[in-house]
Write the structure tokens for this entry.
Amino acid sequence: MRKDSRLSRVLHILVHLDAFATQLTSDTMAQMLGTNPVVVRRTMALLRERGYVTSSKGHAGGWALAKPLSEITLLEIHQALGDSSVFTIGLTDEHTECPIEMAVNEALKDVMAEAEALMLKRFGELTLDKLAFTKTP
């Protein structure tokens, strides 16, 4: 099963944008993440639509934060990326008439919903400035 690492990767980039305090190109960010610049542009466009980043074209163009990290929560970024499930595990639906599958799904559904609700609540309490690396003297 493939992990969805978009949230952690985007958080990485946003903290870097704050640390550099300058615009970064899609190419630069793609190198940092080991991915394609097109993937970066598509993902960053989702954040631009929500007002978290800005972009400018041209030779000196790139991406920059539109808000301070202290005004952005993990929940907001999670939602901007499409609000997918926070879990890579899921319920099976291959044998919908099987009473064992129905019982397993029923038990897992409640536990997973409770865990996800708690996780999303915590995401809403954590601003991105708390993720920034700070040097100690």
